[in-house]
Amino acid sequence: MPGAFLCGLRHPLVSRVLLPWVLLSIIAVSTPVTERAQGFDSDGKRYGAMADQSLFKSRYRHEAPWCWRVVTPFLASLLPFETLTNFRVLAFVSNWLSLVFLFGILRRSGFSPLLCQLGVLLYAGVFWSAKFFFYSPAYIDSGTQALLLAIVYLALGKATRGIPLLLAVGVLQKESLLFLAPVVWVDYARARGWSAKSTIGYGAALLAFPVFALIAVRIGIPATNDYSAFEMIRSQAARLATLDFWPRLGLAAFSGLGILPLVVALGPATARDALSRRPLWWVLASIAVLFLVFGEDKARLFLYLLPALVVAALQVIQTHVLHRRLDGVARVRAWAWIAVILALHLYLGHHFTGMGRFDDYLDRMVPMYASDDAITGGLVRVAVVVVLFGAATALLLRRPASFRA
Fold first, then answer.
1. What average pLDDT does the structure give for the chain?
2. Quick one: which of 134, 146, 153, 154 has its CA closest to 174?
3. How far apart are CA 67 and CA 58, in angstroms?
């Protein structure tokens, strides 16, 4: 019977399609919609007003940069349900597509179906990857992640012909996806030659299609407010010099990545080697770090780094935890360790605690906007998680030499 169960889990339809659907259904049912702005939340008011002109003040429809992110609001306007429900449906479908593409990415990275399922759990366990979009369904980042993962999936499979057009759609979803152009191009250039005519032409296409789309949407939808990306960058860069920024950023890392940084820290050389197999991972990670410096909502911005960190963490687990030399007892301990880190990961992802009021959510998951008292409590909470992670590693794995390999 256990063998039949495991065989069932390995079936492609179950692994790639049904398990993500069941997982997201559980998260959706257990996550209430925020009470803020009738469920639309802060930025979501803009997207809600774009999808339904009867919602909120008319000025919200033309506030930059939100008014230029047209894909999700347009799709929401086409669905037949109440507007917030339309956004919830799109959030579920986008999250499901993200997990499906992530599974494919992990398979193309050489992991077994079982490890790919673990990777999907680790990805979905981060609050911002799925749960947030059931809490604040009018935000458009779930669709952004689906497009990002789709582009990475195509690039890893060398199915690059349609990526320029997909990038054009992507920047109409969120302008930050323009920075996937160098991610894809570096991988393409390494395979075909840096100075080859096809490489140069492909690089031009990767930029031309999305840049044209960005220009067109800005001409077609004039903003009613003064918005400057450079002013945003300047204000965020100035925060680097403030004393309270760094503990908040540290908490944002655990909010945006969960337990994954600790897993990667067990085998940094192994993690580095895993990302070095395809140059796109390092370019994506570098751009994600730049977004952290210049973007405002740090915890949510870690989403751009999350796929690369899942790949790195799985490689550490495969090499140092589930390696082939395990005997029966050691293998049981290894899976017990995985169960512990998954539990800690889900705890950090707010899956075991109620959402509470909007201020409670900010204090727990959004350190940049949390109260000072909440920062102290957050640091204590993370310290406890780190201690439990270390204790589980010392007691269950007991193979310190393997982590130096």
1. 91
2. 146
3. 12
Per-residue pLDDT, averaged over 365-391, amounts to 95
Tell me the CA end-to-end span of the chain in Å, nearest whole number: 37
Side chain identity at residue 98, one-letter code: S
Residue 101: both structure tokens together: 């593409």
Q: Are 367 and 251 in contact (CB under 8 A)?
A: yes
What is the average pLDDT across 362-366?
Answer: 94
Question: Within its chain, how far is the Cα of 370 from the centroid?
Answer: 21
Tokens encoding 64: 């930059």
Instruction: Report how far residue 99's alpha carbon sits from residue 240's, in angstroms, rounded to the nearest whole number.
Output: 34
* pLDDT of 253 over the 60 cut: yes
- Cα radius of gyration rounded to whole Å, the chain: 21
What is residue 6's predicted lDDT score, i.e. its pLDDT? 43
Cα distance between residue 217 and residue 8, in whole Å: 47
What pLDDT does 200 receive? 95
pLDDT at position 403 is 52
Q: 2-6 contacts: CB < 8 A, separation 24 or more? A: 6/114
Q: What pLDDT is stored for residue 11 in this prediction?
A: 57
Counting beta carbons within 10 angstroms of the beta carbon of residue 286, is it exposed (0 to 12), middle (13 to 18) or buried (19 or more)? middle
Residue linked to tokens 């947030």: 132
Please state whether 346 falls in left (phi above 0), alpha (psi between -120 and 50) or beta.
alpha
pLDDT for residue 54 is more than 70: yes
Does residue 68 have a pLDDT over 90? yes
- Look-up: residue for tokens 């935000």? 139
Predicted confidence at residue 92, as pLDDT, reads 97
Cα dihedral 223, 128, 99, 212, rounded to 10, equals: 20
Residue 59 — φ and ψ, nearest 5°?
-65, -25
> What DSSP letter does each residue of 252-279 carry, written as one string?
HHHHHHTTHHHHHHH-HHHHHHHHHTSH
As a whole number of angstroms, the distance between CA 208 and CA 215 comes to: 11
Q: Looking at 132-284, which runs of residues are DSSP E strands?
A: none
Buried b (16+ CB within 10 A) or exposed e, 340-379: bbbbbbbbbbbbeeebeebeebbbbbbbbbbeeebbeebb
Q: What share of the chain is helix, strand, coil (3-state, %, to 5)?
A: 75, 0, 25
